Amino acid sequence: MRYFLAELPLFLDTPRIAGVAASVFCYHQVPVFLDDLFHHRLALRPVSGQGYLHVVEAAR
Question: Where are the chain's structural domains?
């Protein structure tokens, strides 16, 4: 739970934390929570300018 709570501000508003206009959060998996968050199925919403990228290994 501590890890989740520590990461939550980054999922929601990294631009404000970093003082930039936009940010993309890159992650190696898509937990159900993140899928729901970025598809607006939760009460919480990422700010405009906050993106999410699922990183996968490139095909060889």
Answer: 2-54
